[in-house]
Amino acid sequence: MNKNIYCAFLPRSPFCTISKLTLAGFSDKLRKYSATVILEGTTLFRYIIKRILMIIPIILGVVFVIFLLLYAIPSGGLNMFPSAGKGDALDALFKLLHAGNNFFTKYLRYCYNVFILHDFGRASGNSLKIIGELVMRTKLTLLLTGLGLAATLIIGVPIGIFSAVHQNKWQDNVIMFLVTLFSSIPNYCLAIILCIVFVLKLRVLPLIGFAGPIYFVLPTMTLSAGGIASVTKMTRASMLEVLDQQYVTALRSKGLKERAVVYFHALKNALVPIVSVLGTLTTQMLCGAVVVEHFFSIPGLGSYLLRSVNSRDVTSLLGCSVIIAFMLAALSVITDILYVFVDPQIKQQYTKGKTSALRRKEARQ
Questions:
Q1: Tens of pLDDT along 152-203?
Q2: Which of 76, 15, 34 has the alpha carbon at shortest distance from 362?
Q3: Cβ distance 223 to 148 under 8 Å?
Q4: Nearest-CA neighbor of 343 among 280, 262, 289, 278?
Q5: Which residues contact 45 (CB under 8 A, 6 or more apart)?
Q6: Smallest Cα–Cα separation from 322: which of 119, 93, 124?
Q7: 131-356, which class in CATH?
Q8: What is the pLDDT of residue 10?
Q9: Where along the chain do its domains lie?
Q10: DSSP character for 86?
Q11: Closest CA to 236 of 211, 279, 273
């Protein structure tokens, strides 16, 4: 007989009473769990929004410092930078405040043009706006940095795990020697060595240009060599620390295979230091892309920045500075957000207060 029909005829039977109590308890637990999840998600969402909003003062501060340095140079070019626009709201504000043509009005005019009107200005000696040039070159720089970061993680993490598993053996000694060697070679020296080996001797890779994917092999190798060494060393140290813990010994005593212990249990806890160094590593790659792009003649943001400095193009220099500052600030925010999700202890700091308040409210009820 159906439960609903049975309870309709015999509502006070023990079976119906137990079913109602079980359903009520399950509903209460589900309500409490849903409230806890919603509060935790709200707290994390607020933290993410705060970190994203921190990008705005960082970029404004970077632009202010660069603007001040260029303004202090007599031949910097900012003395002729206009503070008046085309009769917009900022001009009305300057007219209302009787603001003259000084440093602060020029700075506010540039920030208004960039962040509100999306106008980075025109390059010196050229009537075209630089926004198209900046977008095209930023894409190439992000592509090169992304390839370098992907190569760093794909190669560095497995090598670090392999070195930790074979601790104090000849494999570990060889890997540590290569790590020390590549971490001490500058990018431009490594680029010369790679060109001699793969271009002049083996003749398997092209030297300069960006006509196809093969042209990014040498720049990616140059840019990711130091990062691979750093990630390998960090992964090895983190894995050695995790593999010495008691829960790993308990997993091994239960008969789990070594591969399952290393890759499914130990690696998850060893990723926290790797994620913490990921932001710094990506920042180093962005800075190293300036040298790599110039060496391999890749028309990216770094080569454009060097050309702007050599030609004293203030508008292009400020535009490159704004884009680079935004990318670095965004990388810092992304790293902080990933760190919260990877490390349970950090995540608990942002959910502990809300969860405790929920428990006190339930206790009063």
A1: 889 988 898 888 888 888 888 898 898 888 888 888 888 888 888 888 888 8
A2: 34
A3: yes
A4: 278
A5: none
A6: 119
A7: mainly alpha
A8: 44
A9: 55-115, 131-356
A10: S
A11: 273
